[in-house]
Amino acid sequence: MTGADLPLWAAWLVSVLAVTGAAFSLTGAIGLVRLKTFYERVHAPTLGATLGMALILCGSMLLLSMLEGRLVLRDALIGLFLTVTTPVTLLLLARAAAHRDRHEGNPDAPPKP
């Protein structure tokens, strides 16, 4: 099966989803570089990468479903694992940084809950 079997509307939709997802991921990467403090920086890539990943995987599932002629959901597992692990990683990094900053007496450390 080739890409020539893909209807034009599906090709456009897959392209739009992939490019939009890549743009969100790029926005998160730019936020990582542009924001000043660690606590600001940690949010941008997490949010951008999660939304970008979701859009790219939706495009991938649509493309594979159209080409194989059946519903293909195996890419949803990638999305599930990334959606679960990304926020957990954010939480652990932020807590470790806050603990370190409080221990070192950094005046910019977030208050203890």
UniProtKB/TrEMBL annotation:
Endpoints of the signal sequence: none
Keywords: Membrane, Transmembrane, Transmembrane helix
Keyword hit for Membrane: yes
Annotated transmembrane regions: 6-32, 44-64, 76-94
A Gene Ontology molecular function term of the record: sodium:proton antiporter activity
Methyltransferase found in the keyword field: no
One Pfam family here: PhaG_MnhG_YufB
Protein name: Potassium:proton antiporter
Organism: Methylobacterium tarhaniae
Taxonomic lineage of the native organism: Bacteria, Pseudomonadati, Pseudomonadota, Alphaproteobacteria, Hyphomicrobiales
